[in-house]
Write a structure and sequence with these properties.
single chain, alpha/beta, eight-stranded parallel beta barrel, 8 strands, binds 1,3-dihydroxyacetonephosphate
Length: 249
């Protein structure tokens, strides 16, 4: 059966010392979680945080990786470099990367492959913007994002992928999708996976919700049949809030 997961996405927050302090607080506080716990940090934190959390209940991931293997790509960080820090996960296709860095279907398809080739589990983000939700085309948008960047994978590769549904209008806005709205699209995503890879794969894939998830609404969201946890932004920056969400399981 699929795993329940609470993953933090620190985004561009915390310097090295602050990041190590937060990781260390989490190491102490997360002792017997009823779900897998992951923190995805800026590249500069990875090596220190992965070392600190070795053998603990908290896994580590990056927020992105390059689509290239190596070479003259100033400022980029490859999947193999990420893996060499001890990190095991990598967020790919976050809406902020799609929006501010123009990452499209094809680039994301390559990034997913690079992550997998280097032993990283992709946390692949999908989600519609406000206008698309208003037009009622959220399913179409999410279907294209998934088909175009993930459905080239072999079943073995796909089995390593975690999907995160993050409606862009709910990210950092305080607006949360209602549990019913989120469940509807999570069930739709699972049906797409079943159509491509079969029911068993669909049942085994973790699908996380992201967008203003906090301790006060996590329980209600996670109670839904197809919501297997959360990808948490703002509330992942404080150990008590993040633990409050973990404890919703
Ligand atoms: P917030 O939880 O701050 O809305 O961010 C969600 C997110 O983008 C996680 O990747």
């Amino acid at each position: 059966m699929r795993k329940n997961i609470v993953a933090g996405n620190w985004k561009m927050n915390k310097n090295l010392q602050e990041g190590v302090a937060l990781a260390s607080e989490l190491k102490d506080k997360v002792q017997n979680p009823n779900c897998d716990v992951i923190i995805c940090t800026p590249f500069i934190h990875l090596a220190s945080v992965a070392e600190l959390l070795k053998g603990s209940k908290v896994y580590v991931g990056a927020e992105d990786c390059s689509e290239h293997d190596s070479g003259a790509f100033t400022g980029e960080v490859s999947a193999s470099m990420v893996r060499s820090t001890g990190a095991e996960y990598c967020i790919i296709g976050h809406s902020e990367r799609r929006q501010y860095h123009k990452e499209g279907y094809e680039m994301l398809r390559t990034k997913v492959l690079k992550a997998l080739e280097n032993g990283l589990k992709p946390i692949f983000c999908v989600g519609e913007v406000k206008e698309e939700r208003e037009q009622g085309i959220q399913n179409k948008v999410v279907e294209a994002q998934i088909k175009e960047s993930l459905f080239n994978l072999t079943p073995e590769q796909f089995s390593q992928v975690v999907v995160a549904y993050e409606p862009v209008w709910a990210i950092g806005t305080g607006l949360t999708a209602t549990p019913d709205q989120a469940e509807e699209i999570h069930a739709f995503i699972r049906s797409l996976i079943a159509g491509k890879y079969g029911k068993e794969m669909a049942e085994n894939t973790s699908i996380l919700y992201g967008g203003s998830c906090k301790p006060s609404n996590a329980k209600e969201l996670f109670a839904k049949a197809d919501i297997d946890g959360g990808l948490i932004g703002g509330a992942a920056l404080k150990a008590d809030d993040f633990c409050g969400i973990i404890n919703a399981f």
